[in-house]
Design a protein that fits this description.
The complex is a heterodimer of chains A (88) and B (304). Chain A is α+β, with helices and mostly antiparallel strands. Chain A contains two helices and four strands; from the N terminus they run E-H-E-E-H-E. Chain B has a single domain, classed as 3-Layer(aba) Sandwich (Rossmann fold), CATH 3.40.50.970. Chain B has an eight-stranded mixed sheet with strand order 2-1-3-4-6-5-8-7, with helices on both faces. Classes of the chains: A alpha+beta (88), B alpha/beta (304). Chains A and B meet through strand 1, helix 1, helix 2 and strand 4 of A and helix 1, helix 2, helix 8 and helix 10 of B.
């Protein structure tokens, strides 16, 4: 992560880390989560689900900071993030 | 079951979404089209209800007919899907029989303002303690995209193929003029602000009205050259300007220019139940209250 000015508590505070979970069968492929992911974790997958929609997949899962925005912006309740151990 | 353990065992147990306990998951995936904004508003509503800490046994969701009307069918709370336009009369009855409960009316612009317009103005006038969430998609989406009272001037719909000749309602100004005590408007992408506003509206005592401008790419966007859901969502969001606490008359939605969003009205006024209790307990005197020192119109001031 780049910093404009090095924070004083950089050693003590670790950026939060999350893991994206995608419920593929609920997805309708609107790609809101892909567009509005602030860390660009997601991309549209090549494969499709039972209804024929391309669902997102996590291409850079290690970048997720557990901001829950994908969870909020998904109109299908098909994606959410869970907290992981903070980055070392 | 926590979300973490469920997410780990993906194949054997499908992952459990954090909002699944408020959803009738057997009905998912829902009927709303790809990129419809109602799902986002629905998620916001559920987060706001959870964050408010209200006892879930005392929260009811009432909706009318239309795409947004399906919300009552997907939420795992007390809910009722009323006939067309009659969500507010039903909610009124529910609130008066159980005043300690929280009644949320979630409906579309066609249901609340076209067929149910008269019910809306009177519910707002009485200042009933209801939370009204109006998802405005600028047309009648469920029936195939006909012209609605919210359709902007010049927009194409199935019943106005060469552009709507009518001027649309300004719902926020209408609600405020009728006596609503909490009025706000957001677009579907203002998710955090919307969740916060719904939470405030749930805590607010009196008639609270929230309008959400939601994309309808299938019925409205397709006929107005914004077929892609993402483009339509961005079209509304990019044009929106947040102006809090301005007069709702000034909060115009000009699709050529700016769409004014924000929280416009937040005032405290006695609700209908306050007035009803006051009248029944005999605290209201004779009408009109004729006092001895009633000012007599002064003729010399009138120029007579």
């Amino acid at each position: 992560m780049k910093f404009w000015r090095k924070p004083l508590d950089l050693a003590a505070v670790r950026p939060a880390r999350g893991r994206v979970v995608i419920i593929e069968e609920r997805c309708k492929g609107c790609s809101f989560c892909i567009e509005y992911c602030s860390r660009e974790v997601l991309a549209l997958s090549e494969s499709f689900n039972r209804k024929g929609y391309h669902f997102p997949k996590a291409i850079k899962p290690e970048l997720c900071v557990n901001c829950h925005f994908c969870e909020a912006v998904c109109p299908e309740f098909a994606i959410f993030s869970v907290e992981e151990e903070a980055q070392a | 079951m926590s979300a973490k353990t469920a997410g780990g065992a993906a194949a054997a147990h499908p992952p459990v979404h954090p909002q699944d306990h408020l959803l009738r998951t057997d009905r998912l995936p829902h009927i709303w089209c790809t990129g419809c904004g109602i799902g986002i508003v629905f998620g916001s509503l559920m987060s706001a209800v959870m964050k408010s800490g209200l006892p879930l046994n005392d929260v009811a969701v009432v909706s009318g007919i239309g795409c947004t009307g399906r919300m009552a069918g997907y939420i795992k709370l007390d809910s009722y899907h009323t006939t067309h336009g009659r969500a507010l009369p039903f909610a009124t009855g529910l609130k008066l029989t159980r005043p300690q409960g929280k009644v949320i009316v979630a409906s579309g612009d066609g249901d609340l303002f076209a067929i149910g317009g008269n019910h809306f103005i009177h519910a707002a006038r009485r200042n009933l303690d209801l939370t009204v969430i109006c998802v405005n998609n600028l047309n009648y989406g469920m029936t195939g995209g006909q012209q609605a009272p919210s359709t902007p001037f010049g927009a194409k719909t199935t019943t106005s193929p060469s552009g709507s000749p009518d001027q649309p309602f300004n719902f926020c100004a209408l609600a405020a003029a009728c006596g609503a005590t909490y009025v706000a408007r957001w677009t579907a992408l203002h998710i955090r602000l919307l969740t916060q506003t719904i939470g405030e509206a749930l805590a607010h005592r009196g008639f609270s009205f929230i309008e959400i401008l939601a994309p309808c790419p299938t019925a409205f966007g397709r006929r107005n050259k914004i077929r892609n859901p993402l483009d339509l969502l961005r079209f509304y969001y990019d044009r929106s300007v947040v102006k809090n606490k301005i007069s709702p008359d000034q909060a115009v939605m000009d699709f050529q220019g700016n769409l004014v969003v924000g929280k416009f009205v937040d005032v405290a006024k006695p609700t209908w139940l306050d007035g009803y209790r006051q009248v029944n307990s005999g605290q209201v005197g004779e009408w009109p209250e004729v006092a001895a020192e009633v000012p007599i119109p002064e003729k010399h001031l009138l120029g007579a």
